[in-house]
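Amino Acid Chain and Its Fold in Token Form
===========================================
What this section holds: a protein sequence and its matching fold, both as plain text.
Structure line: whole-number tokens from a learned vocabulary of local backbone shapes, matched to residues.
Purpose: to set a sequence beside its fold so the mapping can be learned.
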Amino acid sequence: MYSWALITGDTPVTVDARSFRQSLATFPTGVCLVTTLSREGKREGMTINSFASVSLEPPLILWSIRDEARSADAFISSRHFILSVLAASQQPLALHFARPSTDKFLSCDQEFDAGIGGCPRLRRSVATFECTTYSRYQEGDHTILLGRVESHTRTGDPPLLLHMGSMGSLVELAQTPLDQEPSDPNPASSP
């Protein structure tokens, strides 16, 4: 792992966190649900708005979790996770998993079955990536999790998107005025 600050000795300039988040909100992203099973067997899930492909050979994806998140220990220590790209029709589910709760699966258990490593797998989504944790990197206030994709599926459903703090379909977000003040761009800012 390389860190530019370690290589150069540069001291980063602190930026205004709120302003930085508002600038990040200008980049439209998909909305995903990531799930795992803790060492104690507790199901964990959270809404995220950013993941990326890393490699085709081996097939790798990445996402990151805030180290202070309630479920961070479960995700960071787990051997598996499942990332589901949510459909535009799944906005209520995205909002549900963005809020703190002792058992987020209780009210929507019928939407899931067991996937890799016993992780909760959403029965329907735009795309699902079942992963074995490949590596972890702690950077800043987040841990980056890389997953080796062991299996994946996709449908033709339109995705749920996030832009300027608003969630919706591509058509819905295209009708949102761009001059509005962005709300919280991270739907899972306090899981």
